[in-house]
Amino acid sequence: MIISPIACSYPNPVFQSIRSRTYDELGRVLNCNYTNFNREDMNWKNLAKFLDKRFQDQKRVRINFAGCSDGSEPYTLAIYLIKTLGNKSAKFFPIEASDISPDMVEAAKSGVIFLHDRDLKFIKEMGMSYSFCRDSEVKIMRDIPFYKHYVNEPLRSSVTFSVSDVRKMAEEGDFSNRVFVFRNGWTFNSLEDQNSISKNLYKNSNEKTLVIIGQSDLFKSAASDYLQMYGFRGLDNGIFTGAETNYPSVSIGQPSWKPIYPQYILFKKGIR
Ligand SMILES: C[S@@+](CC[C@H](N)C(=O)[O-])C[C@H]1O[C@@H](n2cnc3c(N)ncnc32)[C@H](O)[C@@H]1O
Asked: Ligand 1 atom closest to Cα of 70?
């Protein structure tokens, strides 16, 4: 059923979600906003359980979700936290999502999100269809139809959005007792920047801090090696599935070597 935008309690948005990919003169990807709900490289339910256990002694847990694109991933985590932990999920909200792209953030802040069939299937299976209100607009991206939706309360309030460059964030933030997520965006930053991000994250973390990267960061950036070089250690806990498709594109921050430990996308400070 298509609900008219008037049925939604949102004004007509000025901005539209745009998932773009830009290239440099050598044909390497400079930046890319592609994202999905429920990305397959992680067992999100296990992640929710793991976060519950790891932070059971904390009343409030801040989650920084850098490189959030249109919000598909932080909303995925919010949905799994709600469905897996029930009332216990409240201490993780709001998830603090951010991205370097002002356009993506403006759209996400206005409550607009473009969803494709797979996103909608996931949302339905999770029993969360009531959290999204469909508009009539359809956009074709990568030959796939994306349907414009508005995110309804209370899900919408479970994620806040702001513009932020992860390079600056890692340098200036304090990630003690927090979860720092930056997934599938490392490769759009130079190797030098990846090195500084890792160094600063380590400097600004404590033994409770959790850092999460994505499968494409593991194989298309030096995030895993640099994080471990500075003292983070991989966690083997049934969360990384390795099930994501490997896209053949080459990006500006792609190293010439393979990761030393190809089995970790979650990291904590100190010993394993
Ligand atoms: C491929 S998307 C991934 C989105 C989502 N995390 C996911 O895994 O589906 C990468 C996102 O990282 C963002 N990004 C890249 N470099 C960044 C930086 N230095 N600071 C903040 N965001 C950045 C891009 O703008 C883009 O939206």
From this structure: 27
